[in-house]
Amino acid sequence: MATLGQRVTRLERTVATLEGTMATLDERIAALQAVDLNHETRIVALEQLVLPPPLPPAGQAIIMSTTGNDANPGTEIAPVATVGRLAELMRAGVRTGLIRGGVYPQSMEDMDWPVGTSWADPVLISAYPGEPVTFRPDMSASRVLHVSFPKEFIEFRGFECDAINAAGPLGGHECIKLAGCRAIRLRQIVALDPLSQGISAQASDVLGSGFHEFLDCRSYRAGIRNPAPDNEKHGFYIAVPDCLVSGGESIGHLDWGLQLFNGDQSRCLVERMLLQDNGAGGLVVDAADDAVIRKMLILGGTSGRNIHPDGTSGRAGVLVGSGNLVRRVMIDLVVVLQSGTGINLQPFHSENARVTNSRITQGLYPSPWDGPINNAGVGTTFGGNSVDKAMNASYTDGDPTAIVDPSPAYTDPRGL
Asked: 169, 195 in Cβ contact below 8 A?
């Protein structure tokens, strides 16, 4: 058995080794901070965002449960019962609320959550680890989750918002709405069956809204139980700038799987999503400059066919410019299989777009618009694309893959 002196010597050597390792790490961090992040580093940084950090111990959180009571202090053995009481206790200084598994017939409309100061010091409302949580309010609720000004730096994580009953008097009827708030993060959130939008982020009269993050979120069946065509029943509707949509899927909506719309600079990044079986098409960018669309899989319905209530079959996998000017959109590594135009760059509405490294396979039903890629925009450049056409699919604009252009370096429009 080692003597006390030998043990001390070993501990001293271990400490010295750890100190050397920390010094090396400090040097590497300083080197990274001293230079601009390159393409690969930015991608790694973005992908790390999708991995949720560990939750704090339950003793450092307010606990909510279907068996709780609002007279309780919100501990593990004495949880609260409602989101209103959860928010109230968190405002006393606790940064985390944990929700035990179960179905809650409650809405989270305009709860007075505490606010975070930065993403280093956020507020977190999360499902309890390993326990499925569903919020399913009754018809008196207009939305399941609604966050508005001046809330910021709040993360909602790991639960399902079911709007199958929601039809309340406040209107809107989105499943989830962020309005006028700033820097809200939805992580692994599911939006189900709203009358209107699935997940909506909109501005208000307050400046500075936006900077939201939607990480591995899923949205299903927006507008299906309210089929009047009004072009406002999308899976995701992002109408504020500087947002990140990374991972997840948007399936089975009456209108678009995802729409970017903003009257100012957009700089939004949409990546690593599945958009499938949406009535209007996959993704539309309108009045949203400097957006980046990358690593997407966009599928129509049966044999790639979308059917919209106005009688047209799938409008487009990606539509750039739907009545408003869109500039400098970058589309990279996108795969589209559907009946409508794969990528449609609209005349008078698309300027200086880049379409690179993408594959378009047009389905069996010809579209009222021409071809797998319809390049009617101004200043479009292409590189590294491939097009497969079904036998009876029309294509009249020539083969854009014949235009060889080096693929541009990836740039995160938000500056990450």
From this structure: no
Please give the DSSP secondary-structure letter assigned to residue 254: S
Q: What are phi and psi of 249, to 5 degrees?
A: -155, 160
Q: What is the DSSP letter of 347?
A: T
Condensed to tens digits (0 to 9), the pLDDT of residues 223-280 reads 888 776 665 899 999 999 889 999 999 999 988 999 998 755 678 999 999 998 888 8
| Contacts with 292 (C-beta within 8 Å, 6 or more apart), sequence order | 268, 269, 270, 271, 329, 330, 332, 410, 411, 412, 413
Structure tokens at 304: 């790639």
Q: Which residue, among 262, 196, 258, 184, has the nearest Cα to 228 in the 3D structure?
A: 196
- The widest CA-to-CA distance across the chain, in whole angstroms, is 86
405 CB-side CA count, 13 A? 18
Say if residue 320 is exposed, middle or buried (CB neighbours under 10 Å; 0-12, 13-18, 19+).
buried
Nearest to 194 by CA among 233, 156, 230: 233
Q: Cα separations (Å) of 282 from 40, 100, 277, 299, 318?
A: 27, 35, 8, 7, 6
Of 9-13, 52-56, 147-151, 166-170, which gets the smallest average pLDDT?
A: 9-13
Quickly tell me which residue has 């699919």 as its tokens: 393
Which residues, in sequence order, are CB contacts of 312 under 8 Å at separation 6+?
A: 368
**For 21, what's the count of Cα atoms within 13 Å in the CB-facing half-sphere?**
6
The pLDDT tens digits for 154-213 are 999 999 999 999 887 766 789 999 998 999 999 999 999 999 999 999 886 555 678 999
pLDDT exceeds 60 at position 66: yes
The neighbour count for residue 21, using CB atoms within 10 Å, is 10
Cα–Cα distance for residue pair 229/242, rounded to 1 Å: 29
Nearest to 267 by CA among 328, 322, 346: 328
Q: Which helix (H) or strand (E) holds 180?
A: none
